[in-house]
Amino acid sequence: MESIPPLADLPAQPYWLNGDVSPAHHGQIGVYAILDRDRTVVYVGRSRDMGASLRLHGLRQLDRCAWVKSLVLVKPNGAYLQAIQQAWREQTGVGDPEVWEKPLDCRPLMTPAEEATLAQAATEGERAAVLKNVARRVETEILGQLAAHGLTFAVRFDPKRKSEGILDVRF
Predict the structure, then answer these.
(1) Does 92 reside within a domain?
(2) Do 76 and 51 lie in a common domain?
(3) Which residue, of 49, 78, 101, is where some domain finishes?
(4) Does residue 96 surpass a pLDDT of 80?
C-alpha cells in the first residue's frame, strides 16, 4: 500500500467557488477534509464523487464549510481510501461524523406550536402531515441560507421522507 500523505501537507482550497463546490471535485474519487473559517478540520470523509459529497455536507453544515483539503485517487482502492480517512481522523481528532453524513431530522427543530400540533394529531396521517409541514419549513430556511451565501446549485429533497420529518437530499 502507498504511503499516506499527511493532511497538513495538502493545500487548503476555498470550499465554495462561483456558487458551487469546485468543478475539480465533481466525479472525483478521493479523501477530503472540511475546514471551518479558522481552518480547523471539522470533518474527514471519502467518496466516489467528492463534488456530490461536498455539496451534501455543505447543505447539512453550511456555516462550518469554508475550506477543503482533498486527495484525488487516480487508481482508487477501497482499503487505501479507508486507511487515509482513518489516518487523517487520527491526525486531527475530529469527532462524531453523524451530523455530516445522516439526513437532517427536522423534529428537533420544531417550534412549540408545531410540537403542540403534533401532540394533538390523532391519526398517523395527521402526524405525517404535521411532520411534512415542519420539513417544508426547514427546507425553505435551508434554501434561503444557500441563496444568502450565493450558492446556485439545484437541490431537491426526497418528498417521501418529508412525511417522516426527514430532509434527505437528492441532486
Answers:
(1) yes
(2) yes
(3) 101
(4) no
**Number of domains observed in the structure of the chain:** 2
Q: How far apart are CA 138 and CA 140, in angstroms?
A: 5
- pLDDT tens for residues 122-170? 999 999 999 999 999 999 999 999 999 999 999 999 999 999 999 999 8
Rounded to 5 degrees, φ, ψ at 46 are: -135, 150
User: How many whole angstroms separate alpha carbon 169 and alpha carbon 156?
Assistant: 6
Domain that holds residue 21: 7-101
Instruction: Give 158-171 pLDDT, tens digit per residue.
Output: 999 999 999 999 87
Same domain flag for 97 and 13: yes
Please name the residue ranges forming H helices in 27-166.
50-60, 78-92, 98-101, 112-120, 124-148, 159-162
Banded model confidence at residue 1, pLDDT cuts 50, 70, 90: low
3-state secondary structure at position 168: coil
